[in-house]
Design a protein that fits this description.
Order of helices and strands: HEHEEEHHEHHHEHEHEEEHEHHEEEEEEH
Bound molecules: zinc ion
CATH superfamily: Alkaline Phosphatase, subunit A
Length: 434
């Protein structure tokens, strides 16, 4: 009798548990190029070095080792990161080389991504970014390519390895919500002769290009929203619209520092949806009682603005990203069974240096090395942002560790301490599927 009761209990548990199992959701937020310097720059500007960012309140945090494989010889390590290889590592748990989208650095074979696995198991999926929607980070979740710049059929990069254009792969994937930049993708012709817009509509997507349309739209649409020509403009520009620049030195080698000044609103930002507005639409649409969802939300221009030495652009994008993290955690608290993972693919070249000195030694130069901008923080303090990886306007990524913050994981300690970037994928998989 005892045995019979035990068996009965087991069978009841087996039958009833799927009915009551709450769907699980993952909100993965990637701050592109979001190293500690970029975070500190935003914190210093906005909060004068007080822990005022939302991520500053997230207690479950770790430090992620960034590296990638060499392009020419993937048995060798390159001690820096990049969005395609970093995105691939986060989305698939595999290291690869620069420029590769969810494929092996050795033989180009595809790696299955967490988004693809979630989709196969019936989860809803979404990709949200402030970059062109086909950019490396979103692409690494819903496409496979040897060259990240194979955006559309007219992209020259497609010919390098015969990649299928990323925009077509993403649409074929039927990701439920895709929001970002790139209305210039819409008229591109795809292999079958249709335009990308026609292809999207044929697959049941509502296609929108304006912020007003997004704000007016009822949640629940299968949506392809592209709101700018290429990457989205950022909210702020530097004083007078300028970024960091060469700073001159007088005959006595005294640096002529500019007056500190505050960031300004970017007039080009008018009509662009906020990252949190796009993210909110995605969360409201993907939320379901059945299988749950996986969404990746990217603040892309923390990186892009650091490349061009524009600290105010990086700061405004970092603050928008941080507001979106807050919204995601609040959603997770309300919804339950939702994990929020916040991390970066790699670090960037931003350095916080108060006032760099002139060159010394026999060779006299008329400016200090690198690019520099002196900002006036909200609290009226001087904040120096410095970029010194080269003297052209394309700063380099760095190999620093990047942070990871989590909310809602069953075992948050797995992503605490110093961890490999490959580990993020495994923990997301465990959370969603175990
Ligand atoms: Zn970059």
């Amino acid at each position: 009798m005892k045995r019979f009761i035990a068996l009965l209990t087991v069978s009841v548990a087996v039958i009833t548990s799927p009915v009551f199992a709450k769907p699980k959701n993952i909100i993965l937020l990637i701050g592109d190029g979001m190293g500690e310097s970029e975070i500190a720059l935003a914190r210093d500007y906005e909060f004068d070095g007080e822990a005022g960012l939302y991520v500053d309140e997230m207690k479950n945090r770790g430090s992620v080792i960034v590296k990638q494989l060499m392009i020419e010889d993937p048995t060798k390590i390159q001690f820096t990161g990049e969005s395609a290889s970093g995105g691939t590592t986060i989305s698939t748990g595999n290291r690869t080389s620069q420029g590769r989208i969810a494929v092996s650095a050795f033989d180009g074979s595809p790696f299955k991504t967490i988004l693809e696995e979630a989709q196969e198991k019936g989860f809803k999926t979404g990709l949200v970014t402030t970059a062109i929607i086909t950019d490396a980070t979103p692409a690494a979740f819903a496409a496979h390519a040897q060259d990240r710049y194979c955006f559309m059929s007219s992209s020259k990069a497609c010919a390098n390895f015969n990649d299928t254009p990323i925009v077509e792969q993403m649409l074929d994937h039927n990701v439920d919500v895709m929001l970002g930049g790139g209305y210039n993708l819409l008229p591109a012709k795809e292999a079958g002769g249709r335009t990308v817009k026609e292809k999207a509509e044929a697959q049941g997507y509502t296609v929108i290009t304006k912020r007003d349309e997004l704000l007016a739209l009822e949640p629940g649409k299968k949506l392809f929203g592209v709101f700018s020509n290429g990457h989205m403009p950022v909210e702020w520009v530097g004083p007078g619209g300028k970024g960091a620049d060469f700073i001159e030195v007088d005959e006595d080698r005294v640096v002529i520092f500019p007056e500190p000044a505050a960031c300004e609103a970017n007039p080009k930002y008018e009509g662009i949806p906020r990252l949190e507005e796009m993210a909110k639409y995605a969360l409201d649409t993907l939320k379901n009682k059945d299988k749950g969802f996986f969404v990746m939300i990217e603040g892309a221009s923390i990186d892009k603005q650091a490349h061009v030495a524009r600290p105010c652009g990086t700061i405004s994008e970092m603050l928008a990203f941080d507001r979106t993290v807050k919204m995601a955690v609040e959603f997770a608290k309300k919804e339950g069974n939702t994990a929020v993972i916040v991390t970066a693919d790699h670090g960037q070249a931003t350095q916080i240096i108060y006032k760099p000195e002139a060159y010394f030694g026999p060779l006299r130069r008329d400016h200090i090395p690198g690019f520099y901008q002196l900002l006036l923080t909200k609290g009226g303090n001087e904040l120096g942002a410095y970029y010194g990886t080269n003297n052209i306007n394309d700063q380099a990524h760095t190999g620093v560790n990047v942070p990871i913050y989590t909310y809602g994981l069953k075992k948050p300690e797995e992503l605490e301490g110093v961890i490999q970037q490959t580990k993020v994928y495994g923990e997301m998989k465990k959370f969603l599927f175990d």
